[in-house]
Design brief:
The chain has 139 residues and is an alpha/beta fold. Helices cover 53% and strands 14% of the residues. It has one domain (2-138): 5'-nuclease (Rossmann fold).
């Protein structure tokens, strides 16, 4: 079983139906439902996901259903003081990407990071893939 970390943009692709990016992101969730992959996300992503979905005119109630579904289908990595401290030290050009990366690195089982922002993870020692690449590797 592959253990994958999803960047916030991949989750937004799914729940905001950002075609064509949502197609393979949805497939990753299907693989998780089939127990072929385990998906991890950072707890820090939840507020960003909610905020971006609300900007897309998705109702609060629908967003809360999405948050509940997301919690049931993924493993949440706590964004604690160690994650934040290490994110500051790694000094990624985008702090949020640094938090995502350090969150992923905190779980030794994670095999890759899935994102549409590959440039934001240039310093990564983990493989970086878009959703289509990750789907092909994980299926």
């Amino acid at each position: 079983m592959k253990h994958i970390f999803l960047d916030t943009n991949i989750i937004i692709d799914v729940f905001a139906a950002r075609t064509p990016f949502d197609i393979f992101a949805i497939e990753l969730f299907r693989l998780a439902a089939e127990n072929k992959v385990k998906i991890y996300i950072s707890a820090a992503s939840y507020t960003t996901i909610y905020y971006l979905l609300r900007i897309q005119k998705i109702s609060h109630n629908k967003c809360m259903l999405i948050m509940g579904d997301l919690q049931k289908t993924t493993s949440i990595i706590t964004a604690d003081s160690t994650i934040i401290s290490n994110s500051i030290e790694i000094n990624f050009p985008d702090f949020e990407d640094g938090v995502q990366y350090i969150s992923a690195k905190s779980i030794s089982k994670i095999n890759l990071i899935v994102t549409r922002d590959k440039k934001g993870f240039k310093k990564s020692t983990l493989p970086i893939m878009d959703a289509g690449q990750a789907f092909n590797v994980c299926r």
